[in-house]
Amino acid sequence: MPDYIPQPDGDFDAWVANFVTYANANLAALGLVAGDMTPITTAKTTWDTAFPAHVTASAAAVAARNAKDAARGNLEGVIRPLVKRLQAGSAVDDAERAALGITVPDRTPSPVPVPTTRPVVKVDTSQRLQHTLSFADETTPTSTRKPAGVSAAEIWVKIDGPPPVDATQLSFLATDTRTPYLATFDGADGGKPAHYMLRWINTKGQPGPWSETATATIGA
After folding, report:
1. Nearest-CA neighbor of 153 among 209, 85, 93?
2. Which has the least CB within 10 A, 14, 102, 155, 157?
3. pTM above 0.85?
4. Digit-coded pLDDT (tens) for 184-206
5. Distance, CA of 23 to CA of 26 (rounded, Å)
6. Alpha-carbon distance 132 to 184, whole Å?
7. 39-56 pLDDT, tens per residue?
8. Measured CA angle at 30 (ends 24, 36), to 5 deg
9. CA distance 133 to 125
């Protein structure tokens, strides 16, 4: 059951005023005497001072915050063009940038990590003499986003025979920057198995570990 005393201060103020007015006007009917209302009347006198003071202070605080925000926006607006000039000029060195507290350019290129995770591969064989290879990272198999620093996937294949025992039995097929990849085959390959292995390469061309072998029959 909800409390009969309203929570918002404005509603509470109106409720108290009605309560005190009605109670004082109907003491006998309510079985009360004037002394019963004395603590309430005293407390209401304090409230009648505190509540308007709070409303006034709150309005002043809002006005002060708006004035502060406007002043800051104006100050930033005149600082930023000057900093842009300083950054573009040749007179300011990095020590002076640091002393001013403005951005000091990072002049050391961040190293590109060698991939440590593997692609996972799915092969769609629904079209004759075609395989559509969808690939994703093993850590995020439901996302097409490549790992940080990875530029593409290298796709290698072994056609016919048993799966490859190692990468030396594979032939390079393609480098693909975006999944999926469409592999097409000649009629002579129809009915043969195609064994795929993929690996990520970073922006420097450094490869990561090989994926598990994905095998699918080339539809004739």
Report:
1. 209
2. 14
3. no
4. 999 999 999 999 999 999 999 99
5. 5
6. 9
7. 999 999 999 999 999 999
8. 55
9. 9
